[in-house]
Structure formats: structure tokens, C-alpha cells
Design a protein that fits this description.
seven-stranded antiparallel beta sheet; 14 strands; alpha+beta; 48% helix; single chain; 481 residues; Helix Hairpins
């Protein structure tokens, strides 16, 4: 089932159904127990009333049984013989004896009149018999059974109470209370539940469907807009954001933020490809022209120019490859580098620079960082190349501790970088001096590569105004642990 609304509706309906069934069973059980308890109480009261009369030596035919139809009575003696049954009782089960026909000898003791023993009582000799009977105070025995009264068969709850006559005869009175009211009440409640349960479940399913549909309506809007964006490839479009502050609104905002980042990334990639193609076109065209001229007129071959164009093309290709690796998320190595030694080594290889580089590194200090030696050296080299292009007569590099890291600063005494351009110069293929020739100004990738490498190493690269008036590029890298 693919519909979230359908799954939610079915799930809610099943949960409510289980809860209602469990609650309904519990209600029925409690109701049945209460009604059976009432029947037990009625049966016990009826049995004790008859037992009390027997304890007073009331004759069987004189027993007061006005409600014999609702409370059938059976009396048995100590040997389990039936000595009395209420009027109209035709069959019984659930008592000590299923009989409904009293035995002839059952009237012994129960038919004696209290006046027959007056003389004996006056003599004070009762032969060990109690002066009057008594009813047992113990809890009655309760049991389920059936009885047929005047041709009507029904279920009853029987209570058994013992009574002792003045003659010392122990009789057991079984009185029943009908279970028909309990059964009718339980059946009525069960029928109401069975009738109302489907209706209630239908209401729950419908409400859940409508509520889920309303809640998922913004999601459907987001899906449609994303499908339209995919079909049109227009990353400038955004999905609608609902005014609520729930998870769906957060999803819409996150989706729009992702689209913004994706749009910027695609635009940057397009610009990168266009700029790279433009930058590669010039040296390739120049090299091709020189080779074609040399083919037609060998004496006009500009060999140094061809070599310079080839070197520039090779350097540009290397820069593009490095940027591609950085964009792909390539992580730097974990080698330990001594920055002071790396800077001195990089400067020593630049003997042919236009302006000599001044190095300011303490001899007895150790500035260790973790990362790729080649990439960190590339950053220092790019910063020195940039300083050489803009300096008037001074290029200086210094290494010092800076908090929990190491700071490498490259300064020059050139024109500096305008404050509003200090972030733009780190973009790819950006050259502030457009009037400069490409050969002197480079392709505009050096500073972009330097900042990307610094970020991959957990550091930063910023530009400030140098004390000499030019630019001061500060590379900060965290110390090695």
C-alpha cells in the first residue's frame, strides 16, 4: 500500500479497534461480575429467609415463599434427601440433589410443634437439643444451575445455607436467583457495542484520512514543485513553504536551502567550466599558431614563446586538476610538517624572483602542523607568486605562533587590496587588474586554490593591509596534536 493516507487511516483504525475491543471485553466482564454478584446476594437472602423459618420449626407447608417463581427453593436433609421443594419446581440442577420430589420421612422434626416440648422444657431436660434452631453464619456455597418452574426453563445462581431445627436436624436450603436479567443486560450491551463499533471505526478512519490528507497537502505541493524543477532544470525555483511551524515547514525550508546551495554549486561549476575553457583557449591557440608558422616558415619559429605557452598550459592544467580534487572532497594527508623549514625551503627555490624574499622565522622555534606537505607548500608558493606580481620592492614572509595554531604571513609593499574586494579575490578566475596581460596576471586560480587548501587543513586564509602599505595574506593552520 503506497498511500501514506491509507496506511495512516488503516493503522489508526486498527489501533482504535483493538482498544475498543479490549475495553468492551473489560466492560462486559465487569458488568457480568456485578450482575452475578447481585444474583448471588438475592439467592443468599432468599436462602437465609427460608433457613430462618426452618430454624423456628416452621412447617414446610407453612413456609412463606411468595416469590417462589423467581427464587425456586429446594431443601435437603443431612443425608442429601430432598425434603421440600417450592411450588411449581419441576426440575433442578446445580444443587446437591437433582430431585424435586420430597421423601415421606422428610417431615420428621420439621413438622413438630414447639408446644409439644413445653413439659420437657419446664423440667429443664431437653435431651441435649437446643431450645431453638439456628442458621449457619458461614458464607453460603454458590453455584450455577438451571431450574424448570411451571414449565419455564432458565439459568439460576444457587446459594446453599444450612439451618438447624430445635430438634437438632440440619437442613440445607438451596435458593436460586434468576440469571436472565444479567444475560439480557450483557446481551444488550454486547449488541450495542457490536452495532456501534463499525460505525465508530468508520468515523475514525474517515477523520484520520481527512486529517492526514490535510496535513500532507503541503508535502504534495513540495513534491509537485520538485518534479517541476526536475523537469525544467530551473534551480532558481523554490518549493512553497507553509506558514506552520511544524516538521513539514522545516522540510520545505531545508529543501529550499538545499536548492539554493545546489543552484550556487551548479552556477559555480558552469562558470568554472566556462572560465577554464576560456583560459585554456589562449595558450592552446597561441601554441598552435606558433607551430603552424614554424611548419610553413621554420626560420620564424619562436621556440621560447612556444615553451612558455606550454609551461603555462601545464600549470593551468595542474591547477584545474587540483581544484577538481579539492571539490571532490579529497582529504589532506596526516603527515607532520615543520612550517618554518617548509617556508625556508620554498623561498630557497625562488632564486630567480624579481624581488628577493625576506624570511622571518625564529631558528629555535618549532611550528608543526598536520597535513599534506605538497599542498601547504603550494599555498606558500601561490602567496609568494601573488606578492611578486604586485610588490614594488619588498616581499616578506614570516612564521609565528598564533594561539592554538601557526600563522604564516606574506607581505608586500604594492598597492594592496581594496577592502570591498578582499573576499572576491579568493573566487576562481578573478583578477582585479583586468588591464594586466594574462601572462603577467595569471589565470586567477592561485588564491582560490590557497584558500581551499587552507580550509581542507582546518585553517583559514585572509587578507589585510600590511604595515608597508601593500597586502598581507595570513595563513593560519592548527598545530599538530
Amino acid at each position: 500500500m503506497r498511500s501514506v493516507r491509507a496506511r495512516a487511516a488503516i493503522g489508526a483504525t486498527l489501533v482504535v479497534a483493538v482498544a475498543l475491543v479490549a475495553a468492551g471485553l473489560a466492560v462486559l466482564l465487569v458488568l457480568r461480575d456485578n450482575l452475578i454478584g447481585q444474583a448471588d446476594l438475592q439467592a443468599e437472602v432468599a436462602a437465609r429467609e427460608v433457613a430462618g423459618q426452618l430454624a423456628l420449626d416452621t412447617r414446610y407447608e407453612d413456609l412463606d415463599l411468595d416469590d417462589a417463581e423467581d427464587h425456586p427453593v429446594q431443601v435437603t436433609d443431612e443425608e442429601g434427601r430432598v425434603v421440600f421443594v417450592s411450588k411449581g419446581l419441576q426440575a433442578v440442577s446445580g444443587t446437591r440433589s437433582p430431585g424435586v420430589s420430597p421423601v415421606p420421612s422428610a417431615s420428621v422434626g420439621a413438622t413438630a410443634s414447639p408446644d409439644d416440648d413445653d413439659d420437657d422444657d419446664d423440667d429443664g431436660d431437653d435431651g441435649g437439643r437446643p431450645a431453638r434452631g439456628e442458621v449457619s453464619s458461614d458464607d453460603p456455597d454458590l453455584s450455577d444451575g438451571t431450574a424448570t418452574v411451571d414449565g419455564k426453563h432458565a439459568d439460576y445462581r444457587f446459594a446453599a445455607v444450612e439451618a438447624t431445627t430445635s430438634a437438632g436436624i440440619t437442613l440445607t436450603v438451596h435458593a436460586g436467583a434468576p440469571l436472565a436479567p444479567e444475560q439480557e443486560a450483557v446481551d444488550t450491551v454486547r449488541g450495542a457495542m457490536l452495532t456501534g463499533l463499525p460505525v465508530l471505526l468508520a468515523v475514525v478512519a474517515g477523520v484520520t484520512w481527512l486529517v492526514t490528507r490535510r496535513a500532507l497537502r503541503p508535502v504534495e505541493g513540495i513534491r509537485r514543485e520538485m518534479a517541476a524543477i526536475t523537469a525544467s532544470e530551473d534551480l532558481a525555483r523554490r518549493v512553497p513553504e507553509p506558514g506552520s511551524r511544524d516538521e513539514i515547514a522545516a522540510l520545505a525550508r531545508t529543501t529550499n536551502e538545499t536548492l539554493t546551495v545546489l543552484e550556487a554549486s551548479v552556477e559555480r561549476q558552469r562558470r568554472f567550466v566556462a572560465d577554464a575553457s576560456h583560459e585554456l583557449r589562449s595558450p592552446i591557440a597561441s601554441l598552435r599558431t606558433q607551430l603552424e608558422v614554424a611548419e610553413a616558415h621554420p626560420e620564424l619559429l619562436d621556440l621560447p614563446g612556444a615553451v612558455a605557452d606550454t609551461v603555462r598550459l601545464q600549470a593551468l592544467a595542474a591547477d584545474l586538476l587540483l581544484l577538481a580534487r579539492l571539490d571532490a572532497g579529497e582529504k589532506p594527508g596526516a603527515a607532520r610538517l615543520e612550517v618554518g623549514a617548509l617556508v625556508r625551503e620554498e623561498v630557497s627555490q625562488r632564486a630567480g624572483d624579481r624581488i628577493p624574499v625576506t624570511v622571518e622565522v625564529a631558528e629555535d622555534a618549532a611550528y608543526e602542523v598536520s597535513g599534506s606537505r605538497g599542498q601547504v607548500a603550494r599555498v606558500v608558493g601561490n602567496l609568494l607568486d601573488n606578492a611578486q606580481r604586485h610588490a614594488e620592492g619588498l616581499v616578506a614572509v614570516s612564521v609565528a605562533a598564533d594561539g592554538s595554531g601557526v600563522r604564516v604571513e606574506v607581505r608586500d609593499d604594492g598597492a594592496g587590496v581594496p577592502e570591498d574586494e578582499r573576499e572576491r579575490i579568493f573566487e576562481r578566475f578573478v583578477r582585479l587588474d583586468d588591464a594586466r596581460s594574462r601572462d603577467d596576471g595569471g589565470a586567477g586560480l592561485g588564491l582560490a586554490i590557497a584558500r581551499d587548501v587552507a580550509a581542507r587543513h582546518g585553517g583559514t586564509l585572509t587578507v589585510h593591509r600590511a604595515p608597508e602599505g601593500g597586502a598581507a595574506f595570513r595563513l593560519w593552520l592548527p598545530r599538530a596534536e
